[in-house]
């Protein structure tokens, strides 16, 4: 975060931000294709 003072560190520890997963993979966009129905088809 770039900030290093007591209040920021305390807030990080209270909210559990120190244990967040940094390796979250981005969502992959599906290509447009006639054979792919998508989520709206199954509603």
Which characteristics define this entry?
rod-shaped; 1 helix; 43 residues; mainly alpha
How is this structure best described in words?
- 23% of the residues lie in helices and 0% in strands.
- It is built from one helix and no strands.
- It is rod-shaped.
Largest β-sheet summary: none
Strand tally: 0
**Mass-distribution shape:** rod-shaped
Low-confidence stretches: none
| Average of per-residue pLDDT values | 78
**What oligomeric arrangement do these chains adopt?**
single chain
Structural class: mainly alpha
| Separate helix tally | 1
What is the percentage of strand-forming residues? under 5%
Helical content (DSSP H or I, runs of 4+) = 10-25%
Short description:
By secondary structure, the protein is mostly helical.
List the helices and strands and how they pair.
Elements: H1 6-15
């Amino acid at each position: 975060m770039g900030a290093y003072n007591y209040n920021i560190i305390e807030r990080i520890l209270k909210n559990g931000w120190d244990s967040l997963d940094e390796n979250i993979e981005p969502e992959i966009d599906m290509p447009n294709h006639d054979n792919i129905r998508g989520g709206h088809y199954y509603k």
